[in-house]
Amino acid sequence: EPEVTQTPSHQVTQMGQEVILRCVPISNHLYFYWYRQILGQKVEFLVSFYNNEISEKSEIFDDQFSVERPDGSNFTLKIRSTKLEDSAMYFCAMEDVNTGELFFGEGSRLTVL
Amino acid sequence: GDSVTQMEGPVTLSEEAFLTINCTYTATGYPSLFWYVQYPGEGLQLLLKATKADDKGSNKGFEATYRKETTSFHLEKGSVQVSDSAVYFCALIGSSSASKIIFGSGTRLSIRP
């Protein structure tokens, strides 16, 4: 089964700081997604990204969030000025264009103090 | 909009007990249905799926049948093991939401030896 690699596995940051979470893509996977899971709550959709553009985003994905593929490979989620409520596990997911199946990374745990 | 409602946990069972985790959905058209599993400290893994009515998804002894008449996709296993302890998420991809997965709130399962 393809592996989706996310870094860092855990980041602790101060409120107001910028955070960048990274996801290493798998070949033939063109659709990328970010989800988050606040501790003890459901997994929530943040944004989908295709062909270097955002294709859909949720209400959670406000101006503090951005996504990009800066070097054509890694897929990043940036939070410009973190808030306490951004503390969560962030999952990257990629879609196999042949099967439509989504593969999730192990997640990046963000703790905002 | 599309949504998933699943049985609240936590669920605690003894080893070899029969497991049912209920899941119902609301969606227009014909969604694809999934069960994902999250083992402690790990990311989300696809457990099984069904893409049309009356399909049965199965994997690792788990089964779920797509019931359109009752809009349900209950997860079952005949004899659980300690290693099945995890959080289980029911999910759907609606016919109108591209590949954006919508998750239920998750059910934590603990199996006693």
Helix and strand layout, with pairings?
The complex is a heterodimer of chains A (113) and B (113).
Chain A (H helix, E strand, L loop, with lengths): L4 E3 L2 E4 L5 E6 L4 E9 L5 E8 L2 E5 L7 E4 L6 E5 L8 E9 L5 E3 L3 E5 L1
Parallel strand pairs in A: 2-11
Antiparallel strand pairs in A: 1-3, 3-8, 4-5, 4-9, 5-6, 7-8, 9-10, 9-11
Chain B lengths: L2 E4 L4 E4 L4 E3 L1 E4 L5 E7 L5 E7 L5 E4 L2 E4 L9 E3 L8 E8 L8 E2 L3 E6 L1
Tell me about this structure.
The complex is a heterodimer of chains A (113) and B (113). Chain A is an all-beta fold. In chain A, the strands form two sheets. In chain A, strands 2, 4, 5, 6, 9, 10 and 11 form a seven-stranded mixed sheet that branches. In chain A, strands 1-3-8-7 form a four-stranded antiparallel sheet, with no helix packed on it. In chain A, a hairpin with a 5-residue loop joins strand 4 and strand 5. Chain B is mainly beta and 113 residues long. Helix content of chain B is 0%, strand content 50%. In chain B, strands 2, 5, 6, 10, 11 and 12 form a six-stranded mixed sheet that branches. In chain B, strand 10 and strand 11 form a beta hairpin. The mean pLDDT of chain B is 91. At the A-B interface, strand 4, strand 5, strand 9 and strand 10 of A face strand 6 and strand 11 of B.
Which key features would you list for this structure?
heterodimer; A: 113 residues; mainly beta; four-stranded antiparallel β-sheet; 11 strands; globular; B: 113 residues; six-stranded mixed β-sheet; 0% helix
Helices and strands of chain A, in order, run as EEEEEEEEEEE
Assembly state of the chains shown: heterodimer
Measured on Cα atoms, how large is the radius of gyration of chain A? 13 Å
Poorly predicted runs of chain B = none
Give the N-to-C terminal Cα separation of chain A.
Answer: 36 Å
Percent of residues in beta strands of chain B: over 45%
